[in-house]
Design a protein that fits this description.
Blueprint (H helix, E strand, L loop, with lengths): L7 H5 L1 H10 L4 E4 L1 H8 L7 E4 L3 H10 L3 E6 L4 E6 L2 E7 L1 E6 L4 E5 L3 H6 L9 E2 L5 E2 L5 H7 L8 H7 L3 H12 L6 H9 L9 H12 L5 H10 L1 H5 L7 H13 L5 H7 L5 H11 L3 H12 L10 H11 L1 H15 L4 H10 L9 H5 L7 H16 L6 H7 L1
Parallel strand pairs: 2-5
Antiparallel strand pairs: 1-2, 1-8, 3-4, 4-5, 6-7, 8-9
Helix pairs in contact: 8-10, 8-11, 10-14, 13-18, 15-16, 16-18, 17-18, 18-19
Amino acid sequence: MPQLAIQPWMIAARRVMDALEAARPGSARYVGGCVRNALLGEPVSDIDIATQLVPDEVTQVMRAANIAVHPTGIEHGTLTVVADHTPFEVTTLRRDVETDGRRAVVAFTQDWEEDAQRRDFRINALYADRDGHVFDPTGGGLDDLAARRIVFVGDPETRIREDYLRILRFFRFYAWYGRGALDGAGLAACAKLRVGLEGISVERIWMETKKLCAAAEPIGALEAMGSSGVLAQIFPEARGLGLLRKLVALESRRGSAPDALLRFLSLVWKDAAATRAIANRLKLSNEERNRIVLPAEDGTPMPADMTPHDVRVAVYRVGAVVVMDLAKLAWAESGDPAWADVVELAEAWPRPVMPLTGGDLLAREFTPGPLLGEALRKAETAWIASDFLLSRDELLRLV
């Protein structure tokens, strides 16, 4: 088995690991994404630790070591411990007792192999001890990692029926870590059981979708989702991947980071009814709703020959983000590099606030009502026409 060189995150976790190991030698191992990414040379964000100690023992051990403990997932044996301002999830080894496709009832175990068998993919069932010695209880995780394969632990249908969200995780992990053809057995199981996604909360589906769309190369995974019927199962409004392919190519040429929301929007661009339906169904935040819905239904003119003044007017009307989203999609669709100027100006221009307010007019003997509103609209029209240059005093004289 390979051995990890000591990683910065392993040094950060040393207090936690030392405390667990002091209580019972050999009782704690790093697991999952931190081990996987370290072996791949990818960045590590979340640090998960598996232990043979039960939650009460973990709590006692951490408190004795002056490490804060929070019962964030106690029903599944998970505690969040915070050492030196860094959080770590510590979870007792477990096995599934009962599952319903969304959540599981678990029992604690001392068996590392039993714990590995309840995980989703073999590349996520890799463990490493305090010193970096790697363990592969399924016998296939390291080989999968070397070949960039995403393979379910054991029988794919069994793993999916334990939690149907694993269908989306299969495609998401392929987008991030996979190469070549998708695992046939896993893909067939996802296609067969895709209706089970109807029982998964929209919040979990949206989270997985955003993570998938944020991968450097999401096209292969989304193509497989389309051919297997999974994409239509969760997003029947999607209109194909043609624009997304162009958008990903544009991002690559520009050297820009993947924009998950813009990529998702490309699947339903110019379909206001579809974007509203998705936003309502997924219970999007206001910020996400604006990113998805406004570009599709907004009537702000965005011609290819926009002048700088046109761009500033559009930014004033709907905000810089919406204008940039529309410009990037138009740029990707048309291939016209003139849209680069629109994106650059929209990003750089600070959206102003009209210097004249209703309070200014009320102070000059206007009364509340239609005439006040008409005067403000007249002033705003003139201010915009001046390219936002007229001052408050000039607008007062105008009205």
